[in-house]
Description:
Layout: E1 10-13, E2 25-28, H1 58-73, H2 81-97, E3 106-110, E4 117-120, E5 124-128, H3 129-134, H4 138-153, E6 159-161, H5 168-178, H6 182-190, E7 193-195, H7 200-216, H8 223-240, H9 250-253, H10 258-268, H11 281-288, E8 292-293, E9 301-303, E10 306-309, E11 314-317, E12 323-326, E13 331-335, E14 339-347, H12 354-358, E15 366-376, E16 379-388, E17 391-400, E18 403-412, H13 418-427, E19 430-431, H14 434-439, E20 443-449, H15 456-460, H16 469-476, E21 490-496
Parallel strand pairs: 3-5
Antiparallel strand pairs: 1-2, 4-5, 6-7, 8-20, 9-10, 10-11, 11-19, 12-13, 13-14, 14-18, 15-16, 16-17, 17-18, 20-21
Helix pairs in contact: 1-6, 2-4, 2-11, 4-7, 4-8, 7-10, 8-10
Amino acid sequence: MIDYASAKAASFYGSAIRFAKILISLSAGLLLSACIVPDSSTNNSGSLASSWVRPEDPQEQLGAREHPVVLAKYGGEYSYPQSEKLIALIVGKLVAVSDDPTRVYKITVLNSPKVNAFALPGGFLYVTRGLLALANDSSELAAVIAHEMAHVSSNHAMLRQEKLSSTALGEQVVAEVLGSSAAGQVALAANQIRLSKFSKDQELQADTIGIRMIGRAGFDPFAAARFLETMRAYRAFLAGGKSTDNSESFLSSHPATPKRIELAIRHARFFGAPGIGDRGRERYLEGIDGLLYGDTAEEGFVRGLTFSHTGLGITFNAPKGFRIDNQPKAVMISGPGDIATRFDAAVLARQKSLTSYLKSGWITGLREDSIREELSGGLPSATAIATGDGWRFRVRIIRSGNQLYRFITAAPQTSTKIDLVSEKITKSFRKLNKLEIIALEPLKIRIIKAGFGQGQKYLASRMKGVSNPKSLFRLINGLEKTDKIQQGQKIKLVSEG
């Protein structure tokens, strides 16, 4: 969500829900980080050292140019030595059997809980820690990495810029908060960049090349089909939480269709029957034991219907039937009836009144006569209404010192529940006490051995801080409902601390 330690921001364009037209321009936080890769160095702007990039290779030049922007957009690099060693071993085996074993690949684990993997020109490959948590063995991760390497070797890996939808006002908001710093420029760019989608033929071509690579490298060639099945189950799991895939989702750009899975199995059979090749499960589980799961403390924590941020010292709840999505730029609370709320934070000069802030031009369609100042949980607060293009917005801002918290609830003009939803969310906003702050800890992946008679129900009950623990337990362990767990079997759990 927001890096509370500094006033980093990027323009936000659009309403609180994905299908509303552009009505509101906001600033929101982004974390800028440099990628640290073995035997390389980075400068303060996050650019890779020139030793990584061959001047004669325009593809590498393009990848290096976009690399810091990707870091800013996806939470920076996640450094975890155990996982880095695991990935290095996998990549080494894949490069050795690739069509171009001289190519240098730059692998970055992104500090994002989302399940994603993608490639940039010049051999820049990315996987999120969310994907590492979902995969079940080395061969599955190898299948993902080989697929992305295939996009690079086939010249599929290209970026495209979204059409610039920024307004002078949006740029002014960022400039006021960030000045002309390099971080501000990257934050602006990160809000405008979008990864290109590969065509269906390109995806299938990358599947074919990738499966051949993992098979030649000695991995289980059926891992690709297996992980595609996991992706399909993951999509169903998200759908149960009323989540939707955006244009940058791994699930939308790598759809796990029955035909694609069938073709993956067919390519794997070229190497033999199921059961051949190395899965590398033991080594994989060692590599992800202790891996951060879900949100970071800098972004805030989602625990069911509650969002809490220890650095900001605040918390609020979403209504029953809604879902909280902690995004890099803001927190989104979406629910039935096309109602959604966007929450973020900003810095406000102490001498500026809440009314004058609401009137300062960052809300299009604002009804100035609707502005009301009041106390909310003992803190100065103001509310307002905005309308436009068939949508209605309820805005509430809450001030604590020079920190400003902003809630924008959006719904169709015909909705009769927008006021109730806005009140339920914003009235639950409060400051955390010291004991609550101490009790909040990041979630991590823990690898345990199942004891005698410990089945799925018991082990799932040991999952902490997650919604729908039974389903998530089966998903991250690649289990069906009827699968029996053997004594001594290694199992993934999500736990606090």
